[in-house]
C-alpha cells in the first residue's frame, strides 16, 4: 500500500514580504503568514493526516505550530527537509539569487550546498519515512528544495527541468510513494 504524502510550503514569511531568499536562516512568519498557517490547519486537520513532518527552520516550524496547535497529530522536525543552503548568500534578494539558480544545480553556493545535494538530502528523509509510516497519509511542510526532492524522487522529474521552472505555489501537492522495503512491491 503506498504512502500518501501531502506537501505544503511553509507560510508567507517576513522575508517573503521583503523579497529575500532566507535559505538556512530561520525566518519568521508575517501576519499574513500566520493567517495562512491557520488556514492550512483548517484544511488539513481532518484530512486523514497521521503525522506532520516539518523542516526545522523557524518559518516552517512556526507554520506547523500555528496549523496544528491543540491537535493530537504528532509534529516531527527533520533537518533534511530544509531549504537549499545558499551559504554566504542566505538572506540576499531572491530575484538576484534565483536568477542564477541553474549555475548551482551541481556546484554548491559559496559556503553552502548545491540543489542536487539538497534534493539528495530530502531523498534520505523519504528512505526513512517508509520504515515507520508506510501505507499512511502524512503531511510534509518544507521549502522549494523539499518539493523538488519529492518531485524528483517520487515523480521522476529531472532536476535540470525543475531548477529552471517557476515554483508555482498552490494549496498542497499530493504524492504516492511505494514502499522500497516491501518485497511484494513490483518496483
Description:
Pfam families: His_Phos_1. Belongs to the phosphoglycerate mutase family. BPG-dependent PGAM subfamily. Keywords: Glycolysis, Isomerase. Its EC number is 5.4.2.11. It contains seven helices and seven strands. It has helices spanning 14-18, 31-44, 58-68, 94-98, 115-133, 144-155, 159-162, and strands spanning 3-9, 20-21, 51-54, 75-77, 92-93, 137-142, 173-177. The strands form two sheets. It has a five-stranded mixed sheet with strand order 4-3-6-1-7, with helices on both faces.
> How many domains, in number, for the residues?
1
CATH architecture: 3-Layer(aba) Sandwich
Uncertain segments are: none
**Number of strand elements:** 7
Structural class: alpha/beta
Largest sheet strand order: 4-3-6-1-7
H and E string: EHEHEHEEHHEHHE
CATH level-3 fold name: Rossmann fold
Report the end-to-end length measured between terminal Cα atoms.
13 Å
Tell me the radius of gyration. 16 Å
- Kindly state the percentage of residues in helix: 25-40%
Largest sheet data: 5 strands, mixed
Which band does the percent of strand residues land in?
Answer: 15-25%
Q: Label the overall shape.
A: globular
In terms of quaternary structure, the protein is single chain
CATH superfamily: Phosphoglycerate mutase-like
CATH level 1 name: Alpha Beta
User: How many helices does DSSP assign?
Assistant: 7
Mean pLDDT: 93
Amino acid at each position: 500500500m503506498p504512502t500518501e504524502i501531502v506537501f505544503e510550503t511553509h507560510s508567507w514569511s517576513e522575508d517573503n514580504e521583503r523579497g529575500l531568499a532566507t535559505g538556512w536562516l530561520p525566518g519568521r512568519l508575517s501576519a499574513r503568514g500566520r493567517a495562512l498557517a491557520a488556514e492550512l490547519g483548517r484544511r488539513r486537520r481532518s484530512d486523514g493526516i497521521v503525522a506532520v513532518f516539518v523542516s526545522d527552520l523557524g518559518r516552517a516550524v512556526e507554520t506547523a505550530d500555528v496549523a496544528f496547535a491543540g491537535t493530537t497529530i504528532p509534529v516531527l522536525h527533520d533537518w533534511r527537509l530544509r531549504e537549499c543552503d545558499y551559504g554566504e548568500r542566505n538572506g540576499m534578494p531572491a530575484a538576484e539569487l534565483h536568477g542564477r539558480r541553474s549555475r548551482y544545480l551541481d556546484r554548491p553556493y559559496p559556503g553552502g550546498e548545491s540543489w542536487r545535494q539538497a534534493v539528495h538530502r530530502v531523498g534520505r528523509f523519504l528512505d526513512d519515512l517508509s520504515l515507520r509510516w508506510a501505507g499512511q497519509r502524512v503531511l510534509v511542510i518544507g521549502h522549494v528544495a523539499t518539493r523538488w526532492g519529492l518531485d524528483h524522487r517520487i515523480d521522476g522529474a529531472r532536476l535540470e527541468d525543475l531548477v529552471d521552472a517557476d515554483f508555482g505555489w498552490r494549496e498542497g501537492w499530493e504524492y504516492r510513494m511505494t514502499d522500497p522495503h516491501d518485497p511484494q512491491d513490483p518496483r
